[in-house]
Amino acid sequence: MVVFEVFVAPGADPSQILREETCRETQAQIMTLADAQKLGLRGVPDPGGKEVRLILVKRQYLNWIHRSLEMSDAVAKFRVHEVD
Predict the structure, then answer these.
(1) HEC states along the chain?
(2) pLDDT tens digits, one per residue of 46-70
(3) In terms of Cα–Cα distance, which of 41, 50, 51 is closest to 81?
(4) How confident is the model at residue 17 (pLDDT cuts 50, 70, 90)?
(5) Cα separations (Å) of 6 from 18, 30?
(6) Which of 47, 48, 67, 83 has its CA 20 to 30 A from that of 32?
């Protein structure tokens, strides 16, 4: 699994990070930090007051999600983390 740590662009709608079709086809799970903690995901750095979403996806979809995030106006920047 891979986790994308996505910093939402100022004033952007976080629901616009990925298209609905992309989420459906890749089974990507988009969540807040609070949602991730409830699922037991630990070790996510403090975003320093910025709005962040985490996207959990199977490794096979890494490139697809990476390209989608690069093209999204709702994304200021993102980082990729490997999960065991």
Answers:
(1) CEEEEEEECCCCCHHHCCCHHHHHHHCCEEECHHHHHHCCCCCCCCCCCCCEEEEEECHHHHHHHHHHHHHCCCEEEEEEEECC
(2) 777 889 999 999 999 999 999 999 9
(3) 41
(4) very high
(5) 11, 10
(6) 67
